[in-house]
Structures are given as structure tokens and as C-alpha cells.
Write a structure and sequence with these properties.
Number of strands: 9
Radius of gyration: 22 Å
Order of helices and strands: HHEEEEHEEEEEHH
Strand content: 15-25%
Structural class: alpha+beta
Largest sheet: 7 strands, mixed
Number of helices: 5
Number of domains: 2
Distance between the termini: 18 Å
């Protein structure tokens, strides 16, 4: 939990850490972790026939994989799609690729435009990614921002926050302590990942 990590930072710093700064550092570290495939989630997205562009939730940082119905969609570039058909945005059929170029930061386009809407999201067996997977739906595997981290990431994150807190200009700046915290953080990340 965020409160546990911030309390751990205060304890390890003998209450020298600035509460506002370490709260901001926590958010920054979690955002940085989202660039790595460690805080992942799978999300179902309902498909509408004729609609190709989809916007994932705001918690999504980076899309790792996209699935349509029962297969993985290949990530394509605009140039690759133009080599197939100059009018690739107007193609209709069963999607075989996705592209995020020319879309906003998190939007992605499935190619070609789907001709069929996904079935209702009804999870009779409680298994949305198993027996209950809805036909013609899109699933994305992505990294995400989280307020609370898994317990196994709390200690390395706390040391990274300490590194950032003690390297910045303040009345308690300590470059040697910051460097040691950075080394401990790196070591702990290697051990838990």
C-alpha cells in the first residue's frame, strides 16, 4: 500500500523526508514502473462493428499485446499497412493487426475495421479470459498505474524514493546515502523481478 511505503521511507530516513516530496516521488516511481512489464493487467474491450479505434482506460500506460476474438493481433506500422493497401483505414473484415501510429497516445486502431460486434460480456463461469471469453471482443495486456503496489515491490520502491529524496537540494541532502539507496533499490528490483 502507498501508505506503507511512505511510512517505511519516513522510518528509514529518521523522519527527515519531506512528506509532500516523497508522495510525488512515489507517483513518479509507479509511473516509471509502468514502462516496464511488471505491473500488468488484461482488460476486455467491447467491439462495435465498423469501429476501428479504441481508447483504453486512463490507468493504461503501455499496451503490450492486443488480441481479437481468439488470436493475437500483430503490431503493425502505418508504412506496413500502406504497403498492403493505400486505403487500409477503410478495409473491413476480421482484424489481423493493430496500429497506434497517428492515434492519440493510448488509442489504438484494429485493422481492418471489424464487421461484427462483440458478444455480451456475461461471465457465467466467472472466467472472462477462459470459458466466458466473449466472442469478437478485444483484449489488451498492458502496464498500468496503480495507487497501491504489490507487497513485493514496496521495499525496492521505498529505497528508490529515498534515493530521490536525498539527492535533491534540501537541508538533508546526502549524496552518499542516496547512492547507497539507489544501489539497494536496483539490487532489490533484480531480486524480485
Amino acid at each position: 500500500m502507498k501508505s506503507n511505503v511512505l511510512q517505511l521511507v519516513q522510518n528509514l530516513s529518521s523522519s527527515q523526508a519531506d512528506a509532500t516530496a516523497i508522495d510525488r516521488f512515489y507517483d513518479d516511481v509507479v509511473r516509471d514502473l509502468g514502462q516496464r512489464p511488471w505491473l500488468t493487467q488484461a482488460t476486455l474491450i467491447s467491439v462495435t462493428a465498423g469501429t476501428a479505434v479504441y481508447t483504453p482506460a486512463t490507468s493504461v500506460i503501455r499496451i503490450l499485446d492486443v488480441y481479437y476474438d481468439n488470436r493475437v493481433l500483430r503490431k503493425a506500422t502505418k508504412q506496413e499497412l500502406e504497403s498492403i493497401d493505400a486505403q487500409w483505414r477503410d478495409l473491413r473484415g476480421s482484424p489481423f493487426a493493430y496500429v497506434s501510429e497517428d492515434e492519440t497516445a493510448k488509442d489504438f486502431r484494429i485493422v481492418p475495421n471489424p464487421e461484427v460486434s462483440s458478444k455480451d460480456f456475461i461471465f457465467l463461469f466467472g472466467s472472462p479470459f477462459g470459458l466466458d471469453y466473449p466472442e469478437y471482443a478485444v483484449a489488451i495486456v498492458h502496464t498500468e498505474t496503480r495507487i497501491d503496489l504489490p507487497a513485493w515491490l514496496e521495499m525496492p520502491v521505498a529505497f528508490e524514493i529515498l534515493r530521490r529524496e536525498f539527492i535533491r537540494e534540501s537541508d538533508h541532502k546526502d549524496a552518499e546515502f542516496a547512492a547507497a539507496c539507489g544501489q539497494l533499490s536496483d539490487l532489490l528490483f533484480l531480486l524480485v523481478i
